[in-house]
Design brief:
mainly beta; five-stranded mixed β-sheet; 5 helices; 22-stranded antiparallel β-barrel; 675 residues
């Protein structure tokens, strides 16, 4: 699909914005929220949008947001990509809690470790404009969990789709003036999906490939996940609240055709406590204290692949990984006339340990792949918002971070106790101007930073024996520096009662960007700092027409370049767009959605990246609400198109050799009851 066709779609949407209607619908409320209550540098995704989709996890659901793509590994556990930034270049939080996966190959990205039945809304900050959390030089994705309403309440939801996909959840809550509580449980299950050519995702490997699935595993389940959570809060006074929450996730037998191994299990525990008091004095408007702790235990191996067939154990390679994070944050809001000063101090500690065992490495000798490495971070931040008149607002602030990374075990890359220290400074200046009602113009400049993580510093995957095309020595680089993103943004937003449009441009100059590299003339592969640039744009709109019709469209584009080597930067999504028309009278709805992506031919051959053809798919969905019941039925990929997104296969060093196609035609239905 060519760029010109996508631009025509977007232009058609804007031309139709001249006609407004007064249809009373939840979509009108969402137009108001996006137009009046969101900051110009923010986007959001509501739980209504998630529940209407067949998304299996938050990574897949977030693709509806302008500028967001995902890495497709299989049936579930999709990793979020924001404006071309991914992995530790963006922060993925839950109620402000830092949550990390344990797998070095990101089988279990942060968004995988909670269920969207827990979530009320997801806030997305594009660019390094969040000073309240360390890192996140490309942006922040913060999922906000549900809060109990007054009195007794709850809901039950059950979804079923192609490939025996089951998605069920139930919540119950009670809210009083002095206290409230909520309990929830979710269950997910699916067989292996099929792509548009009728093949299962486990059948994509060619005959003779050691990575192909064994005959007994080709038609096995793709995943089975149980998640439970609870939240209890007390309100000691009218202006104070203390809240404690806990969630546990148990995922079993999760298949990843994208990689060379699959997950035996993932076990996640998360505890979060906060205390907030407001209106303390005319000067001190709010004080909040937060403390959290979470763990992830992850076991993966190749027992379902042919590579394990001749091994003395059930597997030929296995990695037993775990990560633990705990932290605390104190924040304040001061009425520092004529503006508002927000500031605070935070600390977090992340430990990461991954033990690798392989038949070819001294007969399953334990290898400290990630050597029990710990990162500690102490940060101090402040941000001042100053009204310069009724229509002009200036906001600026800074953040300083002291970070230490230390390895607790010995491998061939580090000696026990090896450590690195980093001192980083982040800052931004933002200006918002509203020349008349409904129009907001935003511009900002920012400096965002993030230090290298334990994998990039201390990883060790040696291969004994003579070098060969398949014997890859993959290791970290202890001399890496922190990445610095110098970014500029310009955007505008216009919102009326029934019309919303938003456009933005950004440019990032990335100094010491952490990129993968193949060492010249050798079979070793590692990480290095390079100079890179990124620039891109997003356009999104939503229009309420006559006869309860709603038209929505979006475009997003990113181009990135490795300036050090004068070639494209790897793993950058292509130009993408969507156009949808929806009938919604508040009781029933019907929607047709077209998804489009251009060919991505700007690729990096240094990591064996190849072009990906463009594609277009059509989705249909409809629903009806009656009293407390809601029924939704849909078809995803209506014409059973065979295609793959660009971020659908692992590049070096652990490339699997194939692209994982997207799912074929998926007919699904969900039934919800609210009480």
């Amino acid at each position: 699909m060519k760029t010109r066709k996508l631009a025509i779609y977007a232009a058609a949407v804007l031309a139709l914005g001249a006609r407004y209607a007064q249809a009373e619908s939840q979509l009108l409320d969402e137009i108001t929220v996006r137009g009046e209550k969101e900051a110009p540098s923010q986007e959001s995704l509501s739980i209504r949008e998630v529940r209407e989709s067949p998304a299996r996890d938050m990574g897949e659901a977030l693709k509806q947001v302008d500028g967001i793509s995902y890495v497709h590994k299989g049936a579930i556990a999709n990793d979020v990509v924001l404006r071309g930034f991914q992995k530790d270049n963006i922060n993925v939080l839950v109620d402000g809690v830092r949550l990390h996966g344990a797998c070095p190959s990101r089988m279990d990205p942060p968004a995988f470790h909670y269920d969207f039945a827990e979530i009320e809304q997801i806030k997305v900050v594009k660019g390094p404009y969040d000073l309240s959390n360390p890192g996140g030089l490309g942006g922040v994705i913060d999922a906000r969990t549900r809060k109990p309403g007054p009195g007794p309440g709850g809901d039950v939801n059950l979804g079923y789709g192609a490939w025996n996909s089951v998605n069920g959840s139930a919540t119950a809550s009670y809210g009083a003036d002095a206290y409230d509580g909520l309990l929830g449980y979710a269950y997910k299950y699916s067989d292996v999906p099929k792509s548009g050519d009728g093949r299962r995702l486990t059948e994509i490997y060619p005959a003779g490939s050691p990575n192909r699935y064994r005959s007994g595993s080709v038609d096995s389940r793709a995943y089975e996940i149980h998640t439970g959570w609870g939240k209890f809060a007390v309100n000691p006074t009218e202006n104070s609240r203390s809240e404690l929450s806990y969630s546990h996730q148990d995922a079993d037998h999760v298949l990843y055709p994208y990689l060379k191994m699959d997950a035996d299990y993932d076990r996640t525990n998360l505890v979060n406590w906060s205390y907030r008091v407001g209106k303390i004095s005319p000067l001190l408007q709010e004080l909040k204290l937060q403390a959290y702790w979470d763990t992830v235990d992850h076991l993966m191996d190749d027992r379902f692949r042919f590579s394990s067939q001749s091994s003395p154990r059930p597997y030929s390679m296995q990695t037993d990984a775990s990560t633990r994070v705990y932290g605390a944050k104190l924040t304040t809001v001061l009425a520092a006339a004529p503006g508002t000063l927000r500031g605070g101090i935070d600390y977090y500690n992340r430990n990461w340990d991954a033990v690798n065992r392989r038949a070819g490495y001294f007969a399953y000798r334990d290898l400290a792949m990630i050597p029990d490495a710990t990162i500690e971070n102490l940060g101090l931040f402040g941000e001042y918002e100053l009204p310069l008149g009724e229509r002009l607002v200036l906001k600026g602030g800074a953040r300083g971070d002291l970070t230490r990374a230390e390895a607790g075990k010995t491998n061939t890359q580090v000696a026990s106790g090896t450590s690195r220290d980093f001192a980083d400074l982040s800052a931004n200046l933002q200006l918002s101007y509203a020349p008349f009602a409904g129009l907001d113009i935003f511009t900002g400049i920012a400096r965002g930073t993030r230090p290298p993580d334990q994998q990039e510093l201390f990883l060790d995957v040696p291969v004994p024996g003579a070098p060969s095309a398949t014997a890859i020595y993959w290791h970290g680089n202890k001399d890496l520096d922190s990445t610095v993103n110098r970014q500029a943004d310009l955007g505008a937003r216009y919102a009326a009662h029934s019309f919303y449009v938003k456009g933005s441009l950004f440019y990032s100059d990335l100094r010491d960007y952490i990129d993968f590299q193949k060492l010249a003339g050798r079979f070793e592969k590692s990480y290095r700092n390079v100079h890179a640039t990124m620039w891109g744009a997003e356009l999104g709109s939503q229009v309420s027409l006559d006869y309860d019709l709603f038209l929505r469209a979006s475009l997003s584009f990113v181009e990135a370049r490795n300036e050090t080597d004068h070639r494209p930067l790897s793993e950058i999504p292509p130009l993408r767009g969507t156009v949808s028309l929806r009938y919604d009278n508040g009781t029933c709805f019907f929607e047709v959605l077209e998804n489009l992506a251009r060919e991505q031919d700007r690729v990096d051959p240094g990591v064996n990246e190849t072009p990906t053809p463009g594609w277009a798919t059509t989705d249909l969905k409809g629903g009806v609400s009656y009293q407390r019941l809601t029924l939704i039925v849909g078809i995803e990929n209506l014409f059973d198109r065979q295609y793959a997104s660009h971020l659908s296969y692992a590049r070096d060093p652990f490339q699997s050799g194939v692209k994982v196609p997207e799912n074929g035609r998926n007919i699904y239905a969900s039934l919800g009851y609210t009480f």
